[in-house]
């Protein structure tokens, strides 16, 4: 049986609907997650009494904005916007170590079929903390709260890019740090990935209006943020969206 409460709807009109997906919820049925029997598509369909069509996807352990179309034809238009990088997406993540104030990660990624694709992610650091516990050889542990804006849309791009620059996202498996992940599981009972899709902006496919959607942190992200000692704040739109 489902352990998920009704989905938090953060945007809705006659054509599109967006929810704040919780950690651990699959978007739709997948052969790589045979253990799951609850999916965002079916939950939202049952909640609003209409068929819904996911315009993009989020990893199971990633929380945040998930956009659906309410008509299949319209969904093709939205999917095209995502594929052609016409949708602005911003994420927040808690990562290991102290990240630079701002940086750009330009590092090509290889798909499962061997094809190499250009991938670019912009990063801005929102806060840094030094926690009073030891995970490795040092007596304390350092973490950063970062804002990530992918300029391309490759699979697991943010996870792979943060691992590439040695600031893996806490809770990320298999790209993250096993030692950190085990410590957070054993000590804090934290078994998710601290990555949250907090902002989405796009042109409405029918009206042409600019749509901006924001989503607050899910409870587990907020709990870990508070536990580690980050400043109290809610997701904000980043400075500079050029």
Automatic annotation (TrEMBL):
GO terms for biological process: enzyme-directed rRNA pseudouridine synthesis. PANTHER family: MITOCHONDRIAL RNA PSEUDOURIDINE SYNTHASE, TRNA PSEUDOURIDINE SYNTHASE C. InterPro entries: PsdUridine_synth_cat_dom_sf, PsdUridine_synth_RsuA/RluA, RluA_PseudoU_synthase. The keyword Coiled coil does not apply. This is Pseudouridylate synthase. One of its GO terms (molecular function) is catalytic activity, acting on RNA. It comes from Dyadobacter luteus. Keywords: Isomerase. Residues 16-164 form the Pseudouridine synthase RsuA/RluA-like domain. It comes from the Bacteria.
